[in-house]
Amino acid sequence: MSKRDEKDEILEQAVAMKRWMVEIRRDFHQYPELGREEFRTQEKIIRLLDEMGIPYQTNIAHTAVVGFIKGKHEGKTVALRADMDALPIDDAKDVPYRSKVPGKMHACGHDAHTTILLGAAKILNDMRAQLKGNVKLFFQPAEETFGGAESMIEAGVMENPKVDAVFGLHVSPEMPTGEIGLKFGQMNASSDSIKITLHGKSTHGAYPHSGVDTIMMAGQVINALQTIVSRNVDPRDSAVVTLGKINGGTQGNIIADKVEMVGTVRTLDPNVRERVLERIEKIVLQVAEAMGGSGEVLRKKGYTALINHDEMVESVKANAEALLGPDKVKIIKSPSLGVEDFAYFLQEAPGAFYRLGCRNEEKGMIHDGHNGLFDVDEDCLEIGVALQVKNVLRVLGKE
Q: I need a labelling partner for 35 at 20 to 30 A (CA). Which of 12, 108, 213, 307 fits?
């Protein structure tokens, strides 16, 4: 059998599972669960793994499930990851599989990701006697909220046996079904939440000279913070400083003695990340002091930047071109300033994260993620399954 025939055979197996996968995906879609609350989702995954005869572990990272396929022959270990949490959004679609849970919806495609991993598991498990190595199946909670990837890593999922390569995907409503998006190097930004508190002195509005006005102070701080990107960051680098919430004062005729501001910082380079945060702290403290008050900055460290390993991207590229044709593989030029906690897996092992086209204008699948009208063209499921299987086989090989 030629390599081309083998690739066709794997895709044919995925296509043959289409109805099974659609039923699974639509069930997940009707019963979405938020991060660390994926109990029903976990139960369904367990039930399906039991039906396949795939062993698994569940006593890790809240609702995570880690399946394990042991090949007949010794070799490397490859991990495949799917996030499985939903978003706190009302489902606005008029479809039979619309969410049955008010205020919760799979608006980012994690139901499709989980289904694709189950489909890949089914094919790989059926060919385990030919595998030279092992496959770990990471069903991850809380990608949208608490960073379930980091919790899974802390629980030891990358060890025993040690993971040699890891692959993940994300459906992309910007790309038509049948296309794959690849990014070498940096693909997603890091994020940090910041809370700025300014302290002054309250007094009657008729006697401003007797107080320290934190409203005025906040205005100066906000203006100064916007100079960080334009004057402290190399124009060839990327950084975003956003203040999305401000609160202060009690009455219109009283000088406010306290203002709180909450925002985010997003960067692509770790050195730029620390430099921006350092400048934020200095500006807040020094502007506040210059105006007779004081300030403090509380940083909550968010996701790290997602940086693909180029050799693994090349591997996915070769598989995707053979499976779909070179014209269907698109190289993404610019990284996204959105975040993705698959980044933590890539800090532990070589791997690649890529985009799976799911847009279909004829079917009305045209809406962006995190939108109440978001949906995926289910024809992307079989493509995702076949490509993930091929990614595993390129690392492990077969007898």
A: 307
Tell whether residue 199 is among the known ligand binding residues.
no
Taking the model in full, what pTM does it have?
Answer: 0.92
- The reply to whether 73 sits in an annotated binding site is no
370 marked among binding-site residues:
yes
> Residue 379 has what DSSP assignment?
T
Q: Report whether 170 belongs to an annotated binding site.
A: yes
Q: Could you give the 3-state DSSP secondary structure of residue 13?
A: helix
Instruction: Locate 141 and state its tokens.
Output: 């909670």
The answer to whether residues 180 and 195 belong to one domain is: no
106 among annotated binding-site residues: no
Amino acid at 86: A
- Rg value, the chain, Cα: 24
CA distance 107 to 29: 9
Which two structure tokens, joined as six digits, stand for 173?
A: 């409503």
Give the C-alpha separation, 324 to 4, whole Å: 11
Secondary structure (DSSP) of 363-387 = TTB-PPSSSTT----TTHHHHHHHH
CATH number for the domain that contains residue 11? 3.40.630.10
Residues catalogued as catalytic = 303, 378
Give the residue from 301, 333, 360 where a domain finishes: 301
d(CA 69, CA 137): 8
CA distance 379 to 72: 32
Domain check: are 253 and 277 in the same one? yes
> What count of other Cβ atoms lies within 10 Å of the Cβ of residue 240?
15
Give the whole-angstrom CA distance, residue 29 versus residue 391.
Answer: 27
Q: What is the pLDDT of residues 78-117, one digit of tens each?
A: 999 999 999 999 999 999 999 999 999 999 999 999 999 9
Assign residue 267 a region: left if phi > 0, alpha if psi is -120 to 50, beta otherwise? beta
Strand partners of residue 181: 330, 355
Give dist(CA 391, CA 311) in Å, integer. Answer: 12
